[in-house]
């Protein structure tokens, strides 16, 4: 049975403060225990919030991230802190969604990654943003994210 | 088998224009064929729209009306036209919902009536309005309206 | 284990024609095997259709009937034929729904009966009709019918 | 922590044959470990099948049983075998449903019991049967069974 | 048709900053247009967030508020800002939920009010908090909030 | 982190009137902050309404738009106003749906765009319209719109 | 904005009788306003009924039709009347489903068409029929019909 | 309109006994009325039951069969009897599922066939079996079976 | 705004081992910040597991606990550890469910408490256990737990 | 009808202890009865639990395994015991999920296998792991696993 090498981690297992913003947040990684195997890891973050850069009012989103690791896995506690660090950050929906994904791509150099960002409605019309780094590697199994469409009332 | 007396109707079976506003709309009624029987009639109107009186922007609602007729039934085509007549009318959610119900109460003098108005969200927080004329008559069967709660995304 | 007395039935187990109308349909009954026991029998008929008396166009409904037998049970094949006999009959929604229930009340003299008729939308606004003969007998267990509300699209 | 007295059981933990019919099936009971406490036990049996006494064809039902024990609990393996024993037994829906409940009432003399039997449709119209021994004891908590209504297709 | 008196409002129709905390937030009210009528107003706020007072990490909740107005209605934009003002406030789930409700009770002196706060899971076990000021006024119609239970995965 | 260039916008952050019709509505655009990246933006508009050109009666639709930006993003407030501008415009379902999409194609010259228009039923039979400008660009991730099918009642 | 040419229609906007059978029903068509554009039109007809040719008993189905127009659109009122004309027509499920589709193919000569017919259960086992004229044109977007599978009870 | 040739059938329209086992069951077929047309026929059988060959206890399954006919259609009443004939037959899940499909392949020599067998859980872990005769014919439309995954409780 | 008194807690904010069994687990409590207020606190624990006392095999349950505090609130981390402490404990479903509830009653002396335990199926028939300490206090608002019924497959 | 060769099995039909860990668990296999047929077998295990290697606290997952047998089938009781053997084993989510799959690949040398592991949330963000051994064999039918996405609350 596989043992994960956690020797390089600094955040896990200790109390940590909320980072002041995404630039301050430290994303950590561990070596994948199955580097020759093309599997998908999915994170579902229903608790994302940032600020509107025009009005300073809060925005909310449900975010799902899928990736196929190459050498690295993202450590999940540091990912949580990174996502929470947008709490007082102002950003447009499209930019914010793509920026999160690109930060992970920089950290992990994954074989493939995608993000689905499902924003709560403003003005009655929600925005969703979908991005992937390209077609998934051949032979990878990738279920759809299955988030229900917005439907107003009734 | 019961025959409905439709001799007093003017709108049914002919082409009709959209009334200019709720004051102009003509609500019609027919005698109930079962006046001694306490049954409930439910109308579900998922296509309600009015205007915000402050901004002039459209508002939308899913509306459900339940009533126990006494002598009169509302004619359903005139009800549809009455509801559509709010299309260019400005009104607050709470007022608009109660006003619709009271107009029907005036027309029908029903044994009992209630309205559920489920408004689409503005600013992320939808408003629902629920009103009934009092406790339902004894022995009446009244299923709940069962409209799903708003849940944002995810 | 209880044996039902079916000696009075004429329709069961033989080919039968569709009755020409509700007046022609023969509703049959059998003695209840548990006459001292207050149980509920529910029939769900998602296949009801009649004609609009004004336009001759078809109407459709999903109908649910609950009753507490006294001495008699309705025989289910004759009930099916009775319901199908409305196929070429013209009737208003409210009248048709109550008439079905009253016909069963006449046949069975049940301790209690209710009908829920959930009509398909015409003009965007469906009508539901709910009737019961009065409050259910004390100590009877009666689940709600749980039919989902109409919600248009989306 | 409570220990159940299983000294009187004969079926549990050994291989058992399917009983030839409900009369042959042996229902077993154990003393309740909380005899002064009015709690509800619910069994959900989605695998019930019997035969039609007129045609010999199989019938199917989803059955839910709720009871408030007095001195005895029904042993669940014997309950399963009892229910499976209807596999080659011919019975009408209403009779079969009530008979199951009464057999349990005889065995357990519970403070209260109810059965919901949700039969698969024959001729397009399913039958449900609901029975309870009377109003539930005061202060007992009893969620509804929540089985979805039949809805045909679409 | 009813006209709402909005003469006492200061926030509506102008750009407003996010209040620094719940003590700083200004809740506003308007006179009810139907003061003799016992109707229910429901607000659904799926975008609530506060901080854990022990760890400083974000907490999230879906909040539903129902009330029966007496003389006053809460103005919905000020309610939104009040709820958003908890963004950087530390509070326990139980306290935070009850405090929101009590603040509204102080402002509105409603005939009746309740709050349902459905908190996102921490440690795998979510907490819900349900409070009402007492039994609802007689004859008021109050649908349940219908929020789905938490179910983990699968 | 990306900053969106909003210098060319005229509508955002100020009170705006409802345009008299789609020809009068001003759709605005901003440069995409990620022009080399093939991501999808989805707008869900459950509040669409227009008029029937034959009868003048209101029609309603739930509309979902997906596109892959090239140089431009549509500004969402102007999109909302554009959609609301159909409120007093008469159009057939098929024409109206395709026209909305083509207007966006003209404004944005996107790499790809599709529209799903889910119209509320008239005469019992709803119409859906689905169009895309062609096959999506290679390697783009595009979830299906997942709008539930219409199912009448029951 | 596109204007539909309705000059060739005879049924729209006037009262029409129910056709005696599918051979008598008149299907009408209008020129497509977007003949160079490969879009899909979907009709959902939850109100289909015909007769069993062996027993004369009613059958019911939920029917969904998708097509890509070439030069012609089917006029929706005539489609409704055509579907209703099967009301007194005897046909097997497989034949009836394919015949409807082929009649539309003859009228419209569409680029592509498919039909899904979801028949209500008889004998406990519903039949679905799925047919398309071939693979859809390249680059057309075609959501699945998403009709829920039959699941009996429970 | 197509007429099905039923001259070769022996079971339809007469009372039939339950076959003693799958070897005794007679599957019948009729010529397809659309032999040049590649359509799919789906049967959904939520009422399948057999016996465990090791313990003699009942097993249950929900079974869905899709096929593309060549010259023959299976007659649905004989299919129902064939499936019911497993009632007293002992078989492993995998074997039973594939054997049903192969029996139909032998009878019909279809262009293509698949079976999905969704078995009720034993030991907490249900088994599903999925088989098709190969890739479906080109240009055939084949919706997925859409049976919900098992999820235990909660 | 209310401050919770946490001075008596020993587990919160430090690493803790899994208790060896329910007798070893330490349940902690804090004073309620709203002792004069009758609110409900709900815990949902979808991750419960214990052992079968007869076979030593694992059992699983989804558990929901509602209570109305008097002087004390249960501290949620200690509750989680208490529930996890059943991991290697053997107990019957009925006993285990009631024992959990009674342990909380002993700790908290609440005004009222109930437990719903929804056990995963064994032998195809799941058991649910429902208990409350008596009727809830007057004027308390208590939503039902809304856990979906078990339904096997299909 | 096929007979499965069970001569090599040691666990089936006898009482067995829970293995101490995955290394101790004995996975058994039987020869496939349809070795030339490419069918899929799916196991759904909603009752998986292991320990966190860092904290010793329990983790939970819902696991679905699909495979196409070559010469061997896994015996389901031994699979259940193997999965339960992780109960006191510490492992990271990604490692644990892939290790289960690889153990089955070693035992069965299947034509193809995949695993979907849906872990309960820790810190608000659940992890899913998806792996398959490569693209499925041509012509195999493989429904998606259809597990609903996590959605927090509301
Ligand atoms: Ca999918
Ligand atoms: Ca209800
Ligand atoms: Ca209920
Ligand atoms: Ca809607
Ligand atoms: Ca309930
Ligand atoms: Ca309710
Ligand atoms: Ca999909
Ligand atoms: Ca239906
Ligand atoms: Ca799909
Ligand atoms: Ca069904
Ligand atoms: Ca699909
Ligand atoms: Ca679960
Ligand atoms: Ca409820
Ligand atoms: Ca089932
Ligand atoms: Ca699928
Ligand atoms: Ca949510």
UniProtKB/TrEMBL annotation, chains A, B, C, D, E, F, G, H, I, J:
EC number in record: 1.7.1.13
This protein's record includes keyword Oxidoreductase: yes
Keyword field: Cytoplasm, NADP, Oxidoreductase, Queuosine biosynthesis
Residues given in the record as substrate binding sites: 74-76, 93-94
Catalytically driven reaction(s): 7-aminomethyl-7-carbaguanine + 2 NADP(+) = 7-cyano-7-carbaguanine + 2 NADPH + 3 H(+)
Domain of life the protein comes from: Bacteria
Protein's cellular compartments: Cytoplasm
Active-site residues annotated for this sequence: 52 (thioimide intermediate), 59 (proton donor)
Gene3D superfamilies given in the database record: 3.30.1130.10
The UniProt record lists the keyword NADP: yes
SUPFAM superfamilies named among the record's database cross-references: Tetrahydrobiopterin biosynthesis enzymes-like
InterPro entries linked to this entry: GTP-CH-I_C/QueF, NADPH_dep_7-cyano-7-deazaG_red, QueF, QueF_type1
Function: Catalyzes the NADPH-dependent reduction of 7-cyano-7-deazaguanine (preQ0) to 7-aminomethyl-7-deazaguanine (preQ1).
Protein name: NADPH-dependent 7-cyano-7-deazaguanine reductase
Gene name linked to the record: queF
């Amino acid at each position: 049975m596989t043992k994960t090498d956690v020797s390089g981690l600094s955040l896990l297992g200790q109390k940590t403060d909320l980072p002041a913003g995404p630039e301050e947040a430290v994303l950590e990684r561990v070596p994948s225990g199955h580097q020759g195997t093309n599997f998908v890891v999915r994170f579902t973050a229903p608790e994302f919030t940032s600020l509107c850069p025009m009005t300073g009012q809060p925005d909310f989103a449900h975010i799902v991230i899928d990736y196929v690791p190459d050498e690295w896995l993202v450590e999940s506690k540091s990912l949580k802190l990174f996502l929470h660090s947008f709490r007082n950050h102002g950003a447009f929906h499209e930019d914010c969604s793509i920026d999160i994904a690109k930060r992970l791509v920089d950290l992990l150099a994954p074989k493939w990654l995608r993000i689905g960002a499902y924003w709560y409605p403003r003005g009655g019309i929600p925005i969703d943003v979908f991005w992937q780094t390209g077609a998934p590697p051949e032979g990878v199994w990738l279920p759809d994210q299955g988030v229900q469409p917005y439907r107003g009332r009734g």
